[in-house]
Amino acid sequence: MHSEELTNFCNQLLEEGRKKLNLTMGIVSHISGGNYKIFAVSSEAEVFVAGEIYPLEATYCRDVYKSKKTIALTEIEGCKGLKHHPLYDSMALESYISSPILVKGEVWGTINFSCMDIRENPFTADEIAFTEDSAKQIAEATS
């Protein structure tokens, strides 16, 4: 898939995910050399823009990158340690779900959905599966 096609595909997945998960923001990142680059974004608040680069260590996705596993949290403030995450003071996200995009066994990036509101119920198995399936679709599209 060409870059523009991949961007459009990611944007479609992010829109679908935001609606399905009832969250305000979705991001596909590309991670390389310790940098987290926003590849595609869908957001009500328009806080982030595609192309922006952040140090990976200053993002919520750093733990997804390190563990190569999905993380789903419904109340970040109540989670030990995450309240003190470097990003929390500037962007107090409360609901967050993210899956790694694995290409040839390595983390190419992440797909994540988030919101500043506390989510009343934990993410369901179907919602986690949707996020993981979206990550797999992106991984296949990058090959």
Note the topology.
Elements: H1 3-21, E1 25-32, E2 35-43, E3 53-55, H2 62-67, E4 71-73, E5 95-103, E6 106-115, H3 125-142
Antiparallel strand pairs: 1-2, 1-6, 2-3, 4-5, 5-6
How much helical structure, as a percent, in the residues?
A: 25-40%
> How many strands?
6
Order of helices and strands: HEEEHEEEH
Question: Would you identify the regions where 5 or more consecutive residues have pLDDT less than 50?
Answer: none
Attribute tags:
143 residues, alpha+beta, six-stranded antiparallel sheet, 6 strands, 30% helix, 29% strand, globular
Task: Describe what this molecule looks like in 3D.
The protein has 3 helices and 6 strands. It is 30% helix and 29% strand. The protein has helices at 3-21, 62-67, 125-142, and strands at 25-32, 35-43, 53-55, 71-73, 95-103, 106-115. It has a 6-stranded antiparallel β-sheet with strand order 3-2-1-6-5-4. With 143 residues, the chain is an alpha+beta fold.
